[in-house]
Structure formats: structure tokens, C-alpha cells
């Protein structure tokens, strides 16, 4: 009996299909869902520190049990559904927002390959839950589904603020899909594959991360993934000053909690994709060995990958508490007038590199990036100055005794 | 008709080349936030862990819960002149006057209620009081389970005085005891408010 169970366990771990299911379950249930809770605590702590506060410090040592308290609070709250909403869609929307954020996780190459001792020599199972031919194209596809969560929440709430929030989110996400796609297309030209595990393996074998090759593409992906996650400074869909809470204004209890959780899950997905494409995935010089297929090596790689994701999340939070929210026209201008042309420039430049066969040369890649950067600076210097929103110096206007106004010296 | 020379046309200042790139500005913003984030000394100095620690208030002029002062003989100092309830913008002071049992004043408050929930803690009653009988104290953490509990009556307000008189002594009793209780130092140069009855 025990023997049969052991056999089943060995078969389960050595079979790629079942192992993939296991990996997806481990990753989704463990780091991802708990990670969302930890992220909320981390964000509150970080924002507190940035604003010279201490953040939550009452529940447990250093406030570490605060996520638990938050979760209990959310679950115990009355799950109120207002009478004027479109019920099926209203209930579906938070689920969509959360699930679509999780979907992208299945193609992340967590820790390379694992070779179990009972397997045939040379045989391995991949820690990637799904090795798709379309690779990160799949992430773009399911990532853009996230807009349904927001727009359905906004529409079904039957509330004008929620509706405005949903509308804003739609236009914003559609706009930022374009530069995100262009930047990743530029990386596809360099990498030659859509499969994330191939990209990571190549960065690990050369020891050079592609952020050094294509810094502009990285910055574009970073900005676009902030916008895709509806994250500050692009959180116009929920901007408090104008829309109260935006698309989730009618939500309460756990249904509301799904939206922030989905936002954090989305951030983690974006961070994982950026780590894989630009920062070498599980690769660290001298620490992880690409040829190491033992369980220990895989765990090490897994830890490295999550450390990089955590660093990205920290950067996202720092950005949130530093940069003020964009105005809507600024948001659109950033996407269409600066990121899309730069992305096109990168795609053309990298296409030329591939044509010349120089796409694996660091210097050639940097030259393309520098050329795009210089062009962007020149064009923006020639363009009409953008509206700044900066305070204008108002000279004092003297009112003459007769009632007429003697104008101050003219600028 | 607006004349052209009356128009003042202002142009917003243009961005410099560095500012147009936007990213350097964000990086300088990171410098600010990171500076605050790692300034532990400042954080520990600024943060007050409220129930355990409390801010140091300026006792002399903090406007917290009211008190009714007692004169040195332990009698209520109020003479039920209704100045405070007239001055009160929130109409939270309710006084019922009665004939004073003491020879040195005509009236005293039989009832003196302040609705601490209606009160806006503006301090006008304190300003209006001619005999400095009503004062605001530095106590601000008053709680109650019902609205009725938060209507402070005369006994409660006198009790507040007993609890706060050490931290904040009644100001200038020379003015308020009408020179009748004896033994008061009246050499502060203040004119006698009322002659002896």
C-alpha cells in the first residue's frame, strides 16, 4: 500500500502534466494569494515610512498579523449588494478582475528544470506550469482581459462615478496595450522566441540580462504594466478626488477586497514577466547554475525569482507613493505621443539589427536604444511645449481709484 | 467693453529639456521619498503612539472639555449671568438660575448643563464669562455610551475642576471673588469690580 502510494507520488512528480498542475497550485495558493495579503501590509508599512508614520503596528509583533485582521474584517462584513445594480455582472466583475490577474502566472518559468533521482538520466520536468508556444503573447492576451473586470464593475454598478471610472480604465488599458506590445515585440526580435523559458535560459547562459541590451524597452514595459494594473500614477479609474472610488464605489466586503487583491496579483504577474524578459528570471551570477537540475537548485532559483519579483513590487510601491496621479490628457499623451513612437522606433531599430545579424551584440543594441532616445529628445524639443499645469506667476493687478484698472507690466 | 490694454495674458512657463524627459524628475522624487523612508530618527520623534503616549499640550490655552471653577471657599464661582450661554454659537449651555444662598452675590446656577456633543470648543463662553467661572481644560478624551451621558451637569463640571486645578490653576481669582472672601491678594492693580454689598 505504502509502496503503491510512493510509486504514485514518484509518477506524479515525474510526469510533466501532473507536475504542472502541482506547480500551478503551489504557486497560486502559496506565494501569490498570500503574497497579496503580505503586499497590502508591506504597502501600508512603506507608505507609512514614506510619510514619516509607522504604519500598522498594533496587531501582532510589528503589525505582522494585520493582513489576517484585514481578511477577517472583510469576510465578516455584510456583503451588501445595492438594489439598483445588474446583479449577475456585479457579482461576476470582481471575480474576473482577480482571475484574469492570476491567469498570466502559468507561463512563468519559475526554476528551470528539475531532475528527480528516480527519473531516467537526462529526463527532466519543467517547473513552468504551461510551456506555451505563444509565450508572453498569452500574457498580453489574458492581461487585457483584466479590463473586463473593471469595465463590468463600473457598468453594472449603475452609478455615474463607477461608470466614469470604468470608461477611463477601458481607454487607458487599451492605450497602454499598444506600447506594451511594441516593447515586448522589440524584445521578441532580440530574443527570437516567445517562450519565456527560452529567453531566461539564454540570459542565464550568456550571463547578460537584457535590461542592459534594451533599457528603453524595459522602461516602457515598466510604465505600461503600471498602467495595465491600474496602479498609481495611472489609477485614474479609482481616483478619489474626482470619482470617490471609481469603478468599485458600490462594492463592499470581500467583493471589494477582490479588486485590490487583483491589482496586487496583476502587479506580481507583470513583475514576473519583466523579471523573465529583462532581468534573467532565476539567474544570478555565481549563485544559480543553469545546469543544476536538483531540487535544491530549483528551490534556489525559485527564491531568486521571487526576490526579483519582490524588488519590483517594492519599486511599484515606491512609485505609487512618490509620483502624483496623471491628468487624463497627460496619460493619453504619454501613451500615444511618446511611448508608441518610441516603441515603433525600437521595433524598427531591432528589426534592422536582426537583418544585419547583430541582435546579440550589446553595443549594437545600446546604439539602437541611444538612437531612439536622441530622436525622442530632438522631437520633443521641436514639438509644441506641452501643457504643464505649473503655477503661473500672477503679477499684482492694481485697481486705480477711478475704477479703471491700470494694468501691470505685461510679460 | 474690455479694452485690449486691460487684458493681462499670462503664459505658463515652458518645461526645460530635462523636465520634458520626465524620468529625471521622478528620480528626484524618489530621492525625497527614500530620504523620508530611511529617516528613522525623525519618524520616532514625530510619531506619538496615542493611547500610551500623549502629546504635550499647551495647558494654558488648549480648548478641551469645560469646567466650572470653584472659589477659594469651595463654592461655585458662577453667578448665573447667562453671558456664556448667550455667547455660545452652538447653543449647548443651559442654565437655570436661582437665588444665591450667599450674601455676596444675587444669583447662582441651580442647574448648569453643557452638551459636550453640541459644543464646538470655540472658547467663547470662557471669553464671555465676567467672573472667570467657566474655563476650558486640556482634557480632550472624554467618552460616553449615550448622548445623555455626554450632557455634563453642574456636579460633573465642578468635578472636572477638582481634577484639573493642579494642572491648570484657576486664573486670576482676584477678579472673581469680588473681594469678599478675604485673604486674597488684590495688589495686582486691578480695579475692584464690584463694591462690597
Features:
heterodimer; A: 411 residues; mainly alpha; two-stranded antiparallel sheet; 4 strands; disordered C terminus; B: 197 residues; alpha+beta; 2 domains; 3-stranded antiparallel sheet; 7 helices; elongated
- Please work out how many helical segments of chain A DSSP would assign: 14
- Alpha plus pi helix count of chain B: 7
Order of helices and strands of chain A: HHHHEEHHHHHHHHHHEE
Strand proportion of chain A, as a percent range, falls in: under 5%
Average pLDDT value of chain B?
80
Low-confidence stretches of chain B: 176-197
Could you explain how this protein is built, in words?
With 411 residues, chain A is an all-alpha fold. Chain A has one domain (2-383). Helices cover 64% and strands 2% of the residues of chain A. In chain A, the strands form two sheets. Chain A has a two-stranded antiparallel ribbon with strand order 1-2. Chain A starts with a helix and ends in a 5-residue tail after the last strand. Helix content of chain B is 26%, strand content 12%. In chain B, strands 2-3-5 form a three-stranded antiparallel β-sheet. In chain B, strands 1-4 form a two-stranded antiparallel ribbon. In chain B, a hairpin with a 7-residue loop joins strand 2 and strand 3. Mean pLDDT of chain B is 80; it is low at 176-197. The A-B interface holds A 46, 49-54, 219, 318-319, 321-323, 377, 380-381, 385-390, 392-395, 397, 404-405, 407-408, 410-411 and B 5-15, 17, 20-21, 23, 26, 29-30, 32-34, 36-37, 39, 42-43, 46-47.
